[in-house]
């Protein structure tokens, strides 16, 4: 009897341990996850470059932290191939669905590469995609040349085959974007199986996404999209991303490089070295716009700016070196990488906000008092020390035709007088005439 009860007890204990694990494994392997209560929208506009990589990376991290769908809106003529490829790899590694949505005008070249490699691709009516043949920029002539080298073309075709093909897109048509510079409108792309949706706007896109099932190919994770009550969150780029995006414009970066080089060369050749920092600043900004690493550029700006300020401190006056150093230092700090952020509770955020207000108020009050004191001193009438009227003692006999020394407040002065003054008599200063004093008896 006791042996049978013991067997039943052990069986129930094992069952109690195994069932939760089995159900969890089944849920992980078979049950799709619902997603779509929150939708993060990030906008890729203008030329695609290293700044776009950072923006997309932060956007994906933000969407993952909120378990939200990420919608990448694209309105771009293209950009750097390396940056576009890096973004494709980021999309592959994403733990949430990434939707590409071409809006306003187009997503040509590198923009098309990003679009066809998203988990769901969509376009607005009237937009176009295509023209993916790489081009090479010659800074010496300022011209662009198409690239036909198979060492460059074939890897791009393979990327499209692997990354777009795994998402069930029409790879044969997509490859013609590279080999023939094919361009397609929204409805053409939909009919040929290049994209999945044609939508008028974000709301229409979310309506058509509702109920779809999407599987992330490289994580084998399946999601059921429910956008019936979605909260749309627009993820704004940081100053670092906006600044580098502005500098990435080919015209602006070329002008900065040209003027920076001219100013630097003329300064060195003419011996006017004070203009060299300005040329270096323009050159660094031009390099940043041309695709140079943002972190290295910000570090260079901080180092050069700090050096210029140190030089300015040990030299008299304050001029071009100091001003340029401050600008470089400020830009270097502003372009420095920021953290990806932390997930904190609402209560902690509220306490932190109140603490910041109190600390800021105290610092602001102290700064205000300091400014008030400085202004008060500056507005005060200047106090000029004068020796006239001071009393002293004659050290020599002094007369109308005889000079002698006097001591006034511990200082020795050569003095003259209109009257006879004997040694050790008290005197009073009536005037200062150059390096001499005119005195009389006190």
In percent, how helical is the residue content? 40-55%
Q: Output the CATH homologous superfamily of the largest domain.
A: 2-enoyl-CoA Hydratase, Chain A, domain 1
- Overall geometry comes to elongated
Largest sheet, strands/sense/barrel: 8 strands, mixed
Mean pLDDT: 84
Number of helices: 14
Number of domains: 4
Classify the fold: give the CATH topology of the largest domain: 2-enoyl-CoA Hydratase, Chain A, domain 1
Radius of gyration: 38 Å
Low-confidence stretches: 18-29, 340-345
Distance between the termini: 131 Å
CATH class of the largest domain: Alpha Beta
CATH architecture of the largest domain: Alpha-Beta Complex
Question: Oligomeric state of the chains?
Answer: single chain
Keywords: Membrane, Transmembrane, Transmembrane helix
Transmembrane segments: 251-269, 281-311, 317-340, 352-372
Domain NfeD1b N-terminal: 39-183
Subcellular location: Membrane
Describe this structure in words.
The chain has 442 residues and is of the alpha/beta class. It has four domains: 29-236, 2-enoyl-CoA Hydratase, Chain A, domain 1, CATH 3.90.226; 241-334, no CATH class; 344-378; 391-441, OB fold (Dihydrolipoamide Acetyltransferase, E2P) (Beta Barrel), CATH 2.40.50.140. Helices cover 49% and strands 21% of the residues. The chain has 14 helices and 18 strands. Strands 2, 3, 4, 5, 6, 9, 10 and 13 form an eight-stranded mixed β-sheet that branches. It has a five-stranded mixed beta barrel with strand order 14-15-16-18-17. α9 crosses α11 (276-289), α10 (250-270) runs antiparallel to α11 and α12 runs antiparallel to α13. The chain is elongated.
């Amino acid at each position: 009897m006791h042996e049978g009860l013991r067997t039943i007890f052990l069986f129930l204990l094992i069952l109690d341990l195994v069932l939760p694990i089995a159900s969890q494994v089944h849920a992980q392997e078979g049950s799709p996850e619902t997603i779509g209560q929150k939708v993060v929208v990030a906008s890729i506009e203008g030329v695609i470059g290293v700044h776009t990589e950072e923006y997309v990376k932060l956007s994906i991290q933000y969407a993952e932290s909120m378990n939200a769908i990420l919608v990448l809106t694209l309105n771009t003529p293209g950009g750097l191939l390396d940056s576009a490829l890096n973004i494709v790899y980021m999309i592959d590694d994403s733990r949430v669905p990434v939707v590409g949505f071409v809006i306003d005008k187009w997503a040509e070249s590198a923009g098309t590469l990003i679009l066809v490699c998203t988990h769901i691709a969509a376009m607005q009516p009237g937009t176009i995609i295509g023209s993916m043949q790489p081009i090479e920029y010659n800074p010496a002539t300022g011209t662009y040349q198409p690239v036909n080298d198979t060492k460059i073309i074939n890897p791009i075709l393979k990327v499209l085959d692997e990354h777009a093909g795994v998402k069930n897109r029409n790879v044969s048509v997509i490859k013609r974007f590279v080999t023939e510079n094919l361009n397609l409108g929204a409805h053409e792309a939909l009919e040929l199986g290049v994209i999945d949706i044609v939508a008028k706007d974000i709301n229409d896109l979310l309506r058509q996404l509702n109920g779809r099932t999407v599987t992330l190919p490289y994580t084998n994770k399946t999601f059921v999209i429910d956008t019936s009550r979605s909260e749309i969150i627009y993820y704004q780029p940081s100053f670092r991303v906006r600044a580098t995006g502005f500098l990435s414009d080919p015209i602006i970066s070329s002008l900065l490089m040209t003027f920076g080089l001219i100013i630097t060369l003329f300064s060195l050749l003419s011996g006017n070295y004070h203009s060299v920092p300005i040329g270096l600043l323009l050159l660094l900004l031009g390099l940043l716009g041309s695709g140079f690493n943002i972190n290295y550029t910000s570090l260079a700006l901080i180092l050069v700016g700090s050096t210029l300020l140190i030089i300015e401190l040990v030299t008299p006056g304050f001029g071009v070196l100091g001003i340029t150093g401050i600008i470089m230092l400020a830009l270097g700090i502003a372009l420095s990488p920021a953290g990806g952020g932390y997930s904190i509770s609402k209560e902690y955020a509220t306490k932190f906000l109140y603490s910041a207000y109190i600390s800021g108020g105290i610092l602001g009050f102290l700064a205000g008092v300091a400014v008030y004191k400085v202004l008060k001193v500056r507005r005060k009438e200047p106090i000029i020390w004068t020796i006239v009227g001071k009393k002293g003692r004659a050290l020599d006999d002094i007369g109308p035709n005889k000079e002698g020394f006097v001591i006034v407040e511990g200082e020795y002065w050569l003095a003259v007088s209109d009257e006879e003054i004997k040694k050790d008599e008290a005197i009073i200063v009536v005037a200062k005439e150059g390096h001499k004093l005119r005195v009389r008896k006190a």
